[in-house]
Every structure is written in C-alpha cells, then in structure tokens.
Amino acid sequence: MARFPVHTFDTAPEASKPSLKDVQARFGMIPNLAATMATSPVLIQSFIGIFDKVHGGSFTEPQIQTVLLTDAVTNGCAWAVALHSVLATQAGVDVADVAAMRGGRSPVDKGLGALSTLARTLIEKRGRLDEGDVERFLAAGFSKELLLETITIVAASTITNYVGSVTNPPLEEMLQAHAWNG
C-alpha cells in the first residue's frame, strides 16, 4: 500500500495548517493520524468540526472514550485502539473495562456496557438496530436523544478508524505500550 505522508506544518497543504494548529493546541502535539489527515484539507477540517460536536455534547469523557474505543476495536483500527486505550484510562474508565473493550467485549459497568454494546451493534448492523437493541439501551437509563447522539460519536470515530486503516500512520512512542493487533 502506498505510504501516506505524516505532515508537519511545513509540509501540510496551506488549507490544512489552521486545523493542524488547532489539533496541536488541543493535544499539545499533532498526533500522526491527524498529520496524515492533513493531506486532505476537507478531511481535517471536517474532523475538527465533528470532534467539537462529540466533545461538546451530553456524554461524559469516560462515556465518549468508551464509544470511541469500542468503535476502534470493532472497525479494527490499531492506531485508534492504542490512542483510545490511553485516553479511556486517563478519563477514569476502569482498566478491566478497557481490557474488555480491547478484547471485543463490553465493560462490566452497566452504563458503559450499554454504550459499548450499542456502538458495536450500530457498526455491525450498519445502523439497522432492531427494537430489542433500542430497548436494551433505553433500559440502561439512556434516552432516545442520547441514542442519536451516540450515532454522532460513531460517525466521528468511523472517520478516524477508516483514515487509520487506509493511511496506517506509525504509532507514537507514547502509545507503543498500548499497541493492538486485533
């Protein structure tokens, strides 16, 4: 497969540079996946917009990271699994729950488990939830509004998961201990 560039400010297309500066301000660095996204200004700009919506919504950071990690595993994106393993742990998700998600299972925590199951089911069924899928999510204490908001997180993670699978960026040193081979 053709190698995609891991851009810096100097090599990125001019229209991608503001987004890269934004990413660096948020993360204190430019993650390699974002650096590969910069090849397409449309992609990196869209990613920033949906990233803001995901992190400005109704879910807590542990809940968001649960969906993102579940999606990365379900979509088989090694780079995103490593990143979201770190971010989920930093957000306070129990290490055993992170391990469960990395293994394709749902967390023991009831709420996180319901979110993880919903996210996995959305991907596996390509959004075609049946009544039982919806009822299980609602029975865990979530609303219909939050079910729809979960779709936004799944959409955002699908972007990063697909980009990671297509571009295969190198794993940063800080993520090496969380490498995942599926």
Molecular structure report:
There is one protein chain. With 182 residues, the chain is an all-alpha fold. The protein has a domain at 61-158 and 171-178: AhpD-like. Helices cover 64% and strands 0% of the residues. It contains 9 helices and no strands. It has helices at 17-27, 32-37, 41-55, 61-75, 78-90, 95-102, 110-124, 131-139, 144-167. The longest helix is centred in the last third of the chain and has 24 residues, at 144-167.
* Major sheet details: none
Our count of helices gives: 9
Proportion of helical residues: 55-70%
CATH class of the domain at 61-158 and 171-178: Mainly Alpha
List the helices and strands and how they pair.
Blueprint: H1 17-27, H2 32-37, H3 41-55, H4 61-75, H5 78-90, H6 95-102, H7 110-124, H8 131-139, H9 144-167
Helix pairs in contact: 1-3, 3-9, 4-5, 4-7, 4-9, 5-6, 7-8, 7-9
Summarize the structure.
With 182 residues, the protein is an all-alpha fold. The chain is built from nine helices and no strands.
State the main characteristics.
AhpD-like, 182 residues, Carboxymuconolactone decarboxylase family protein, globular, mainly alpha, 0% strand
